[in-house]
Structure prediction request, 222 residues.
Amino acid sequence: QKEVEQNSGPLSVPEGAIASLNCTYSDRVSQSFFWYRQYSGKSPELIMSIYSNGDKEDGRFTAQLNKASQYVSLLIRDSQPSDSATYLCAVKSSNDYKLSFGAGTTVTVRA
Amino acid sequence: EAGVTQFPSHSVIEKGQTVTLRCDPISGHDNLYWYRRVMGKEIKFLLHFVKESKQDESGMPNNRFLAERTGGTYSTLKVQPAELEDSGVYFCASSHSWEQFFGPGTRLTVL
Prediction:
């Protein structure tokens, strides 16, 4: 079983729709959760971090965390063509600083 | 504020040669990390420096890889001798606390 699994893509959504990205993790002591956006050939860019159960909103992005279900998600509201990228879920355990990454979900927003 | 920078952006070498990658973290970040992504796989942790000390090198694949961070500023990752399976993108990241900021990566191709 992989440490971090993301829903397989690619995910295609029309402009203005909600894109929903899911991520599950296997390590129960995981403490911190991050979403990165990566455009082709560019560096992963941190867009959201979440540490507590519940929802966290930042602009058009909402991260949701459920530690009991070992599940974290990212919603992108009012999707724009500029949101087309690969989204990486990353998890940090409580024991160290290293991040475990999922394989990423590629999102395409159709104009 | 300048981001994490990496040099070179691309490197093509032959099997058995040596390559040295450089990372300059965000100024003031004590934590520096190396990750790599090989084709078709997730981004994987290699090691973590706190200032000039190696805090965690559990992800280093073998003794052909040597990382240094003299003076606690920039870091180098040397691969000697390079093997075909070392091809991939090597990312450096830095952090003040838990949120890690990534550089653009060095794409290494071993022929």
Summary: The two ends of chain A are 37 Å apart (CA to CA).
